[in-house]
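Take one record.
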Amino acid sequence: APKGRYSVYALPLKVGQNQIQVYAERAGQKSEMVARVVTCTPPPPQTPQIDLPAEHATVQLPISGQADRGCDVFIKVNDGAPVKVTATNGKFNTTLTLSKANQGKNRISYWAARGAEESDRGDAVVTFVERIDPPTLASDLPGTSSTPRLSVSGEAAPGTNVVFQVNGRTAFNKKAARGTFSGQLQLAAGANTVTFWAALGSVRSQEQTREVVYEGPAAPPTPSPEPPTREPPTTRPRPPVRPTDVPESVAPPTQRPAAAWTDCASSAVSVPKGGGQWVPLPPGSQFQISVTGDDTFNVFITPGDGPTAYQGWFNGGAASVQIRGRSSNARSHSMTFSNRDGGEYFLIFDNANYPQGGMAMSDISVNYSIKCK
């Protein structure tokens, strides 16, 4: 108290009675203790704020919202038992189960509680409809393509299966577990009809159609066979053919030149500490991969569900990742890979200090280049 006055900011109080004791001290000598009781009575909690859709196409409804920090939030669907979740940092999320009864109309009520005090209740109606919106593409398919394989990606209702067909044959059928999907299409020479939709059980969205013309190099014409020729009759014996003699009518065999390697992809990515980053392998059957970083890290090659399974390592450690190629614990990696089944594959850059330990303990910058043929 330099001028005989003092102030203290934000004494931490608990709900209810708080014992406040004050004394002065100079040179080790204390004054008498002054005691006061301060009762903390916070206002009732506010009604939670929840974003609820008017309609939903799946039984499971993920929701999120905001409430007073530390309050318990209760959410009730129809006459069922309320779901309880705590707004630890003022935010919460959970999943509700909708009913198909009563024409799919579900009455949602929700409130917050702090001890015995409860907020006012909020109400909403969410209708379960057996209708699914078609998938949306991140970028539309081109009208023409110079390559026989196209990569597609986009968004769909979480939990639905996304189906793509090319000329009536299924190209891929994948579950949009987190609301996103990706895959590859194999085009035929000439015009191709691409159809796609989302499905959940027996319910399907409206089909979407695109036309893509593959303008690849035409196949060489098949030579027509020449009629056989007859030797004119002769009475003179023919000279024997020595192994080094080559009849003039037979051309020496020709060898096709081997396919050349082309630069298919190259870029730089930032790999977070204790995590990973991934990129899809471009279309092709054989790959030469070069990856360098500013510290040690791992590189994996995994099939299409690899990134999802890789994330499962960190969300619970129970996921199984199929690894088709691996290079571990180095700053520079050189790898080769053959895509024998024509499937979708990903290159995962791993900075999770596994398996040897002693890897980078900070974000690292990674540069990669991919050659393919």
Observations:
- Helices lie at 306-315.
- The two ends are 80 Å apart (CA to CA).
